[in-house]
Amino acid sequence: ARVSLGGKARSPKGAPMTLLWPEMLWLLLLVPAVVAAYLLLLRRKKKGALRYASLSVIKDATSAGQRLKRHVPPLLFLAAFILMLVAIARPAAVVTLPSQHETVILSMDVSGSMRATDVKPSRIVAAQEAARAFVAEQPKSTRIGVVSFAATASVVQSPTHSREDILAAIDRFQLQRGTAVGSGILVALKMIFPDAEFDLRSANPRREAARASPLDPARPADKSEAKPVPPGSYSSAAIILLTDGQTTTGPDPIESARIAADRGIRVYTVGIGTQGGETIGAEGWSMRVRLDEQSLKTIANLTQGEYFYAGTASDLQKIYKNLNTKLFFEQKETEISALFAAAAAVLALISALLSLLWFNRIF
What span, in angstroms and rounded, lies between the C-alpha atoms of 134 and 129? Predict the structure, then answer.
């Protein structure tokens, strides 16, 4: 069993059952014909029984209990017949199913703002503790990679099954200046698709956007010419992105998210920090650090992932536990005609067994 993430785009909860081949529902017109044939057969049998049976036998056969028993097997068979006809129309529904994934990339912010203490004992320590707990709960068959990003992004640990190496990588985080969320996404993508080429130019997205011309767009380029796939459709890997601040340098994180979406990779974003932020400083400088929730929500929506807000260390622990559930199971629209066919087979079998038990014959 491998870790699950991914799959098709999620349908709204409570979505009704749909039919992939609805034109075959005309076969349900056979049901009244079968019922009519059964009633006609009963009438003929009754006439024959009245002609040859004695009065006592007729009385016993027409008692309320016997009348009920004789109709149970045919009714069960009729229900099986209806279910089989519906199965031919190929019903589909939104169901929760286990899914198999083999790679999870943790992309974590190590910018200087992560030293803020509004999340106790500090944002970076809370993030490290939650990441350790998440790693410990993953199945051994899951490969986990670690990316850290500040002004630039780097691979701290390539995807591996070794939990000791992963935990050691998390412990090696060193805080730096700058926040390049877009680079954190692209380097994580590079770990999933090592043969792909992504533009990791470290440029301030605001300055570049201001001076860019239509012929020179300031966006990270996917040079691998991969054919886009539906967002969230890549079922073998996913990215968990944790950050506490706004992008100050590097590629545009929204454009990076679009590249991830074109590759079918889901990006689950986790925002850490209080809503009001905190003022941090050292050696004569200070700055106000706030969380850019809107960008993280946009990244999650573009990639069919999900955004989580962590205002406390306990919130962060709960989020990672919740992510475990989301990585193991997913909701998606799936054809369930096999379930209808299986139910029909079970009802037909019960019908036959009851008929043999009560009447020593099948119908």
Answer: 9
What would the pLDDT profile of 75-131 be if each residue is shown by its tens digit?
898 999 999 999 998 888 876 555 555 799 999 999 988 888 888 898 899 999 999
* Residue given tokens 């036998």 in the structure block: 57
Beta strands at 285-289 and 153-160: parallel, antiparallel or unpaired = unpaired
> By the 8 A CB rule, do 141 and 166 touch?
no
HSE-up of 346 (CA within 13 Å, CB side)?
A: 6
Task: Report the Cα 249 to chain-centroid distance in Å.
Answer: 31
- The reply to whether the predicted model has a pTM over 0.90 is no
Q: Give the H or E element holding residue 309.
A: strand 307-310
The answer to whether the CB of 228 falls within 8 A of the CB of 262 is yes
Sign of the CA dihedral running 327, 331, 333, 334: positive
DSSP conformational letter for 19: E
pLDDT for the residue 202: 44
Paired residues of 345 in beta bridges: none
Q: How far is CA 9 from CA 101, 164, 265, in A?
A: 16, 34, 11
CB 130 within 8 A of CB 313: yes
**Distance from C-alpha of 315 to C-alpha of 119, rounded to nearest angstrom:** 10
Determine the Cα–Cα distance for residues 294 and 288; give it in Å rounded to an integer.
18
The whole-angstrom separation of Cα 143 and Cα 130 is 18
CB atoms within 10 A of CB 32: 9
Greater model confidence, 211 or 45: 45
Q: Which two tokens stand for residue 5?
A: 């993430």
Determine contact, residues 293/302, Cβ cutoff 8 Å.
Answer: no
Count Cα atoms within 13 angstroms, Cβ side, for 102: 4
Please name the residue that has the structure tokens 């190929």: 90
Query: What is the edge-to-edge ordering of all strands in the sheet holding 153-160?
Result: 153-160, 143-149, 103-109, 237-243, 266-272, 307-310
CA distances from 312 to 125, 131, 315, 317, 324 (A): 12, 14, 5, 9, 19
